[in-house]
Amino acid sequence: MQQIEQQEDIGPSDAEFVLSILQASPSVRDSRSYMASFAPDADDMAVGAAEAANAASEPNPLVETMLNPIVRRPALVKIQGPFTDHQLFSIARGIHHLQKLGLVSVVVIDRDDIPPTESLDSVAAEAQRTLMLRDVERCVHFLAKSQAPARPVLATVARLGDTGDVYVEAEGLDHVRRAVAEGEIPVLMPVALDEGCRSRRISANAVLCALAEAMSTTSAGSVPLSAEAPAGRMDLTPLRLLVINREGGIPSYARQGFPHLSINLASEYDYITGTWQPQWRSTHPTALSNLALADECLSHMPRSASALIVSHRSPAALISNLITNKPAHSASLPHALLTQSEGRVTRDTPTLIRRGLPVRILRSTDEIDKVKLTNLLERSFRRTLNQEAYWARLEKDLDFVIVVGDYAGAAICTIEGRETGQHICYLDKFAVLPSHQGDGTVDFLWVGLRDETYGLGLLDAANPSVGSLSGVGRGRDLVWRSRADNGVNKWYFERSNGFVTSEDGRWKMFWCDAEQRLREMAQENGGVMRVVEPEEDGRLQAWAPVIENIKSAWSA
């Protein structure tokens, strides 16, 4: 213990902290999003942040703003122990880094080894309370050693209603507000006052849900946290829910028990609970309760808010998530790249959770809201659609349309080359409204696209979206084209199996191979894949003229 405390007194260097920021690799969009929350008067600084990050001799406005955030935003944090001193110190360092970046944690302590029990006698209940109080004190101690001032909130913030519901009144919230106003991290016990004014140990999740509701509903008309903000009018609306535990993220049926990278609650919640595996009850005993916690808390928080379920062994993920509001790796990247590449997805990879949007698969033009889809395409591409010609083409060639939310995003697939007997599955349009770019909609849309085309036929392609094929069928190669100078091509490169450039240099034609076919060919060849398999020979030459001759959908 003494050795640890001596190391703690040193504290992280500024160079180490700045390096951890840069390692998050924020894009220009990420920078804008972060600075809109933590430096709302300096949005224009984000434009040059990405370029400055690559030039050592130039100041990086993004880093400078992160080191001196103008305003501060709250986060709800569950520290789900028990943890050793070394583990708790690592967690405290991570929370300190978040505080330096402008995210002020409101911490609730939890213990997996002493779950709350209604039938406890007074002696056992008092023993539980003593253990929880000790953990609160340990957390405050290590936060202080990490140079993050903290305050134990020993007053009972939550109350129990006559029906067992948990809520936080204004008086209870004042304890949290005062701590935050004075620059301290409040650390709470999971207790509540019952109708007889007795303090009772309850679920930490119940306290967090009550705090999420109270902190969000009492912040109307309030101002961001800053040195000038009056304590009574501080905006306590939480922007993040962080669950720091020992078991890591939510295990995924599609990834053989490795964690989900991101979850769209609106379309995946029921599917995840329905495909829960018995063996995960021992390896991830609190995963489903944490998923339910995220669902409830995020329902009270802003739509841009997210929840992160993260192992104590992944402290760097806290900074990366705060800056980018994205998962550790994009869920739309090829499965093999994520699961087979060393160091990509591990048992400790965190899970990012969003409220998300429902996803539907439409297979007839009669099901499409043409006005809304036209608006989406024109706003996304910033061009005018030749509506008469485009809708006439879809009437003839439509395969399906994936729609996210109320046309916040869409992927339109057609069947091309019928006249030559090819029946090419062609991604005609992939569009997301500007207001939804960076909120996970792009990844949710591409995952659905994969499951309906080149991933079809595999167990992990059981897409829970309304109208999907649910993984039943045989995968098809997916082909699309993009202008050679399109800035999105880098994103396409990472998700495709290959591309070729047209003879005139105007287009790049991308494709994703049907994964089921690739697996079968690898099995036939003893696990070895040829550069070009016999059945694939000549397909690019056959695709190219068909794809290049597709007429533009846009008005001149």
From TrEMBL:
Major localization class: mitochondrion
InterPro entries, per database record: AceGlu_kinase-like_sf (IPR036393), Acyl_CoA_acyltransferase (IPR016181), GNAT_dom (IPR000182), Vertebrate-like_GNAT_dom (IPR006855)
Coiled-coil ranges from the UniProt annotation: none
Keyword Cell wall biogenesis/degradation carried by entry: no
Pathway: Amino-acid biosynthesis; L-arginine biosynthesis; N(2)-acetyl-L-ornithine from L-glutamate: step 1/4
Record GO terms (molecular function): L-glutamate N-acetyltransferase activity
GO CC terms of this entry: mitochondrial matrix
Domain N-acetyltransferase stretches: 357-535, 360-519
Subcellular location: Mitochondrion
Enzyme class: transferase
Signal peptide from the UniProt entry: none
Family in the record: Belongs to the acetyltransferase family.
Function as written in the Swiss-Prot or TrEMBL entry: N-acetylglutamate synthase involved in arginine biosynthesis.
Protein name per its UniProtKB record: Amino-acid acetyltransferase, mitochondrial
Gene: ARG2
